[in-house]
Amino acid sequence: MSALDPFRNELRALLGPDVLLRRDRAMRALFVCDAPRRPAAPAASPEKLRDAGYLVTDEGTLWRIDLSPSRRQRLIAGLNPGPPPLSPFLRSLCRSLRAQGDIAPEYQPWPPIRAALLRLDAGETERLASELAADIAIRKRTHAPLPLAAAYLIEEAQTKGGPPCSSITMPTANF
Description:
The protein is an alpha+beta fold.
């Protein structure tokens, strides 16, 4: 079960069965749906989604749906550390994400946490690890808060039988 599944199920109930709902591959939100194209979907309204704690960006024939800031904070606050991943690279990555200690949910950057949710849901653990490693390096150099919740999501995904990560190795540089 993915950490996105509860949101997916809630949105499916709010939007109705006829609306196409999928992960946002552009990673600008959690989901994309085609509700504006479906006149037979009267249950779907941006106001209804906003009342449920979602941000809706209308892009004409599509809506991008993300968590509202308060809902993000509740999600982050509800995450707990788990056992370290088997992969040495992921274990090191999670340790790096914890380097600043506890970080209040409101200070953790949402884009890398959203990326962790989307990549883990898609089974793209190796790609997530590579992207997070680069992001962490920049954040540490600039003394910006780290997305600690991403470590908790990785650990949770591995604990709940997510995609195997023992084969993930440290990326090599191409010189």
